[in-house]
Amino acid sequence: MLAIVAYWALFVAGTTVVSPMVGSVAPDSPAAEAGLAEGHEIVAIQGDEMRSWEDVNLKLVSIIGFSGELNIDARPEGASDAQRYGLPVNDYLVRQDPPQPLQTLGITPWQPEFPAVLGQVVSGRPQIRQA
């Protein structure tokens, strides 16, 4: 019974996922050649909807060995409609151990910047000294 209640609570509350936003694109990569850019949100790959980076990675790993044009639908920052980008790939992820699905395409996920903030220094404890 507890399992049913826990499952119901998870269903009602939902889960939080990180939207697949492109952080940077490596120059001369398949993503750069296709025109994908920083700030684009990936909404579909090969026609399948993507809601999180987990979805993106699972889809990319599922097409190991693919050759041709990898279609990624992405929404530029501030736009309401997605555009299709065709990334040229040949034997995608073949002979990679472990596979690097995003890096192979030249995509780095966006990550928020969290500056390091020093709360307090406690006397009598080891600390880093400035020269």
Automatic annotation (TrEMBL):
Species the sequence originates in: Vreelandella sulfidaeris
Protein name: PDZ domain-containing protein
UniProt cross-references to InterPro entries, sorted A to Z: PDZ_sf (IPR036034)
